[in-house]
Design brief:
44% of the residues lie in helices and 12% in strands. The chain is α/β, with parallel strands linked by helices and 499 residues long.
């Protein structure tokens, strides 16, 4: 819009005289037509449709585009943490920057086609002097979380005896109506999250709105032909004939669109990096290595595949976001205590972040028996193992493993500064040289080197090449230790040779 909102017409007469807002244009363009027209313009210009939405370009976004081009009300079906609400809220970017409405109207009436009695009377009395206000994009979006206690009055409206008493009007007068959420979303988007949680009678109340585009309040002879785009979200488990959804309502929803979790680690890392609060004001600099970001994301992927985790509930994308924030905080705490200038998350920080993992996992019976803490530790180990394979698959680590087989142990103390940790890690033959594969050089700061070396040790532990315990730290794998350090194909007196 070339002019600022403050410069736009403020009366109906001025609006009619405005070249950029003629009656023919404003009066005829309904919400779904406006969204469709603006979407077409964006597609023609090759603009990004929904900034900040990652991983849906070839799946969900094309289906949403089709629904809007078809002028459909639609529903997003998906498990928790799949950006359903964020997608719906992003639809407001397809609105015009601002539209005119009659000032003071609860349902944002179109100045050229008022539908509420109050605005009709206002125009009859004031004509071209009727005051106009401008409605921005954000005010054209109304969202409601469906809960069993939502009533028809909340959604549609009800008689307001207090309004009738104060105005001295008969209680049957249309001007005594208190409008609900749906009428207040007129000329915008009305979104209902978790649609199946609405009581059946409320779902029935949506029929006429979706089919005929109007509402009736308390049996009044009041017809409000609302102008709306209705959008819903739901869990696929509930959105079935056996679930909580009423079939006739399901039949009236134009498009059913399935969302999903990130399809690749790269997509997940991008989403988590975008959403996590890691760029924070702090006395220390924070740097998260790429392999640690991948481990955090792989943790969520492993949880979604684990049989001990309930797949019907899903594993929200909020899990890796919370874990990343938590490991950064633990590294920050360690750096502050050690008075270091650089904080770099390490594998030990993942175990410190267990509270941000266990609370987001819904476990199956087997998982409940094992315990959430143990399940989370197993997931961390599996995640480290998979990322380790990406960087070191086929690598020769026999020298490092041999150091432990010959009786070496290493327990990393979190209270030590990074320099002391690197000194400890450097005693393991061949370990620090392997960090080059992770992009870490000998001249890099100690926090980066200690993080990379610890990741390698954890990867060996994940593949059962060495063991780890709270008491001893990293040590030889249990079976090898019991066998006196022998591996298959080794001579029994190998230990003596190195002694």
């Amino acid at each position: 819009m070339s002019r600022t909102i403050a410069d736009l017409p403020r009366t109906l007469g001025a609006l009619r005289a405005s070249d950029s807002h003629s009656e023919a244009r404003v009066g005829s363009r309904r919400v779904k037509d406006e969204l469709r027209a603006n979407l077409i313009c964006k597609l023609q210009r090759g603009e990004e449709l929904f900034p900040g939405i990652v991983g849906y370009d070839d799946s969900v976004v094309p289906q949403i585009v089709n629904a809007i081009l078809s002028r459909h009300n639609f529903i997003l079906l998906g498990l928790r943490g799949q950006a359903k609400t964020r997608l719906i809220r992003a639809l407001t970017t397809l609105f015009d920057e601002a539209i005119p409405c009659l000032e003071g109207c609860e349902i944002h009436d179109n100045p050229y086609r008022p539908i509420c009695r109050r605005c009709q009377l206002l125009i009859e009395e004031t004509g071209d002097e009727a005051p106009i206000e401008w409605l921005g994009r954000e005010r054209r979006y109304v969202e409601k979380l469906a809960t069993p206690d939502v009533t028809i009055a909340d959604m549609i409206g009800d008689i307001d005896p207090i309004k009738a008493a104060r105005s001295g009007r008969n209680i049957s007068d249309e001007l005594t109506v208190h409008y609900g959420l749906l009428p207040r979303a007129n000329r915008g988007i009305f979104a209902i999250n978790e649609l199946p949680d609405l009581a059946g009678k409320i779902q029935v109340g949506l029929f006429n709105i979706m089919q005929e585009g109007d509402v009736q309040i308390k049996g009044y002879p009041v017809r409000l032909p609302l102008d709306l785009l209705l959008v819903f979200t739901a869990n696929p488990e509930d959105y079935t004939a056996r679930g909580k959804i009423i079939t006739p309502l399901k039949d009236r929803i134009g498009s059913e669109i399935r969302t999903h979790y990130p399809l690749s680690i790269e997509q997940g890392v991008s989403i988590t990096g975008q959403e996590a609060w890691t760029e924070r004001a702090s006395p220390v600099e924070t740097r998260v290595p790429g392999y640690m970001r991948e481990v955090v994301e792989q943790l969520a992927f492993s949880a979604r595949e684990d049989k001990k985790v309930d797949k019907r509930s899903g594993v929200s994308q909020r899990l890796p976001i919370s874990v990343l924030e938590n490991i950064v905080s633990n590294a920050e705490r360690r750096a502050l205590r050690s008075r270091e200038a650089l904080a770099v998350p390490r594998v030990m920080d993942l175990y410190a972040a267990l509270p941000s993992i266990t609370g987001k996992l819904e476990l199956e019976y087997e998982g409940e028996l094992k315990g959430g803490d143990i399940v989370a530790r197993d997931l961390i180990r599996a995640a480290v193992g998979k990322v380790y394979d990406k960087y070191f698959e086929g690598g020769n680590f026999s020298q490092i493993v041999q150091w432990f087989d010959l009786g070496g142990t290493l327990k990393l103390d979190e209270t030590l500064d990074s320099g002391a940790i690197v000194k400890q890690l450097s005693t393991i033959q061949g370990l620090m040289e392997k960090t080059r594969a992770l992009g870490v050089a000998p001249e890099d700061p100690a926090p980066l080197r200690s993080s990379a070396a610890e990741f390698i040790l954890e990867g060996l532990y994940a593949h059962r090449r060495i063991s780890r315990s709270e008491e001893r730290g990293y040590a030889a794998e249990e079976k090898k230790r019991e066998a006196g350090g022998r591996e298959e194909g080794q001579r029994p007196n190998l230990r003596r040779q190195y002694n």
